[in-house]
Amino acid sequence: MTTPTSTAPISSSTVSRPVGILAKGLTEAPKLNFGGVIRSEWIKLSSLRSIRIIVLLTLIGGIALNLLIALVASSEFGMDGLSQAGDAMHQTYLLTVATFASPFMALVFGALGVFAIGSEYSSGMILSTLIAVPGRKAVFAAKTIVTAILALGMGLILTLVSLGIAVLTFPATGDQVFSVPVISGVLGTALFLTLITTFALGVAALLRSTAGGIVVVVGIMFVLPIAIGILAGLSTWEWPYELSRYLPDHLGATLSQGIQDPELSSESFGYWKALLCMIGWAAITLIPAGVLFTKRDAR
Long-range contacts of range 270-277, CB-CB < 8 Å, 24 or more positions apart? Predict the structure, then answer.
């Protein structure tokens, strides 16, 4: 024999409210905002073991390499010789020590950009990300911002610590630390490494492959300049030389020289033009990657 029971009707507001939130006694579900997306992307990025290894190797390796060039310079010029040199030589020394490792570290920063999004595709985590945050524009923007901030912080630490090493090695050069060429060269190098990172992130987002992204970044950063250099040396054409000036490695070298006096500088390309070109390299991959990220399937 069964006893009939009655069930109280459930309101639509109760059905739509998550169980976990009811347990906490909240009356409405928290709204998703862009700040929360930024925080979630930072947690994901900082929790990756590959990212931590890249950050550690970059800072230790880059600072050690710059320290080595400072020691070489000290034995080559001697304390007395550099102390008696002019302001231009002091600025050159400071910039050389502070930015020497940046061309070699550019590949590591590129790997950082590739892993920032490529690891999610290789592990399938991208599906969970898009379920948690259905707004794909917010996801891609947050991922780009977090990766760029991390790269900029690493670039500044690398160059500023190396600049401090340069001053400690030759205290006489300390009077030029806050000169326009030195400050702009340090900032330009950090921005170059940041833009390389975002460029690589765009490449990985387009290919949705970590290995493919690494291959493309290595090809553009190292293989392409060598190929164009060989072509320029074996031919009488002018366009290979002109093209080489717009490649990231040459742009990074220009930015590392800082804003120089046009009458004293042998580089006619220009600091600001190089910075705009590097922004263009990042935009070439980020813009189409962002568009495709919002339109195509996650896998």
Answer: 271/184, 271/188, 274/188, 275/188, 275/191, 277/246, 277/251
